[in-house]
């Protein structure tokens, strides 16, 4: 492989990772899911679905937001019944954020919507190409420069 391939991949990733691209996608995924769920609160739901209960600071590191922003957005999700605060069993002074049953259901809906949008966008591709793309993208995520090194992460959005 040559450096040109690296540049091509970097350019494609830059397009995918732009804040505007993510915001548009999150807006689509959360459309009609209730007042508390939108492009701003979706990353918290998705992050908690990946991590399980965690502190606002830990969730902030997971989704690249500061603790204050996480707390403010968590308040909205708590009022909507999608998130709850619970005592940290390891530290009685600390509080963990956790998804409620409705929160888990909302994440399931958004993940289904995302999978359907991806399937639609790949509909014109030969099935073998789509499967190869999925396999190689997973490998790149696991082994490439974005790899977390955490085997417990499931890589879901």
Characterization of the model:
By secondary structure, the chain is mostly helical. It is built from seven helices and two strands, in the order H-H-H-H-H-E-E-H-H. Helix 3 packs across helix 6.
Mean pLDDT: 89
The unreliable regions are 151-155
Strand content: 5-15%
The SS-based structural class is: mainly alpha
Report Rg: 17 Å
**Residue share in helices?**
55-70%
Number of helices: 7
Characterize the largest beta sheet: strand count, sense, and whether it forms a barrel.
2 strands, antiparallel
- Approximate shape: globular
Order of helices and strands: HHHHHEEHH
End-to-end Cα distance: 29 Å
Instruction: Give the strand order, joined by hyphens, for the main sheet.
Output: 1-2
DSSP summary, beta strand count: 2
Annotation keywords:
disordered C terminus; mainly alpha; globular; 157 residues; 10% strand; 7 helices; two-stranded antiparallel ribbon
Summarize the structure.
The protein contains seven helices and two strands, in the order H-H-H-H-H-E-E-H-H. With 157 residues, the chain is mostly helical. Strands 1-2 form a two-stranded antiparallel ribbon.
Write the layout of secondary structure elements.
Blueprint: H1 3-17, H2 19-30, H3 42-51, H4 56-63, H5 67-79, E1 83-88, E2 91-99, H6 101-121, H7 127-143
Antiparallel strand pairs: 1-2
Helix pairs in contact: 2-6, 3-4, 3-6, 4-5
């Amino acid at each position: 492989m040559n450096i040109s391939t690296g540049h091509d991949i970097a350019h494609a990733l830059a397009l995918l990772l732009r804040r505007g691209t993510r915001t548009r996608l999150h807006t689509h995924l959360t459309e009609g899911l209730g007042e508390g769920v939108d492009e701003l609160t979706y990353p918290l739901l998705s992050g908690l679905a990946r991590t399980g209960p965690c502190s606002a600071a830990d969730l902030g590191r997971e989704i690249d937001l500061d603790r204050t922003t996480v707390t403010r957005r968590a308040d909205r999700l708590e009022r909507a019944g999608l998130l709850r605060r619970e005592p940290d069993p390891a530290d009685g002074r600390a509080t963990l954020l956790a998804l409620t049953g409705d929160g888990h259901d909302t994440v399931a809906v958004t993940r289904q919507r995302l999978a359907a949008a991806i399937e639609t966008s790949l509909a014109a591709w030969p099935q073998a190409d789509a499967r190869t793309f999925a396999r190689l993208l997973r490998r790149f995520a696991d082994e490439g420069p974005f790899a977390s090194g955490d085997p417990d992460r499931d890589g879901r959005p």
